[in-house]
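FAQ

Q: What does a record look like?
A: Structure on top, sequence underneath. For example:
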């Protein structure tokens, strides 16, 4: 399963994503893709996205966590960033001092 959370998805990318995903809420896409299709969809988004477009993808993956996270585009103002520690994906919340 793949879940994509994006910001302000351009119409042509939204149309492309709806070939494989449902959009239960605006800018949230959920679907099940094989690895080849997943890679092609991610490449399409990265290649055609405007510079200010960003998204976070969480995909089922055969590792100890059972998923992998991928972020593309700007970090945004959430105060969170992904990091990997000993092969484990984590979310780091930045304090006001470190922003």
């Amino acid at each position: 399963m793949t879940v994509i959370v994006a910001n302000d998805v351009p119409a042509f990318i939204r149309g492309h994503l709806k070939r494989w995903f449902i959009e239960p809420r605006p800018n949230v896409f959920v679907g099940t893709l094989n690895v080849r299709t997943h890679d092609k969809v991610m490449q399409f988004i990265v290649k055609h996205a405007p510079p200010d477009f960003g998204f976070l993808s969480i995909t089922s993956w055969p590792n100890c966590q059972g998923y992998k996270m991928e972020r593309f585009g700007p970090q945004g103002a959430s105060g969170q960033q992904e990091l990997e520690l000993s092969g484990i994906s984590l979310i780091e919340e930045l304090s006001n001092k470190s922003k």
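Q: Is there anything notable about this one?
A: DSSP finds two helices and seven strands in the chain.
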